[in-house]
Design goal:
single chain; 71 residues; alpha+beta; 3-stranded antiparallel beta sheet; 2 helices; 3 strands
Amino acid sequence: MGLLAGSTVTLLSIIWRTCTVVGKCNIRDTIAVNNQDTRSFHLKDSGVSVDVWTICLFIVVFPLTSSTFLI
């Protein structure tokens, strides 16, 4: 069981890291400037923007998928 959980976490971490590297953009005054990536790995001036629809979808999907571990 631990091996299955560990491999799942590893695979999700790889996917998460790939998405953040590919999808990052410049952030100017806490607003993302899409399609512009001039700063390589700056902690304050670059990042990933998330729209409201993605957050709403996460609020619904996360509890549903997590509930399968309780059953």
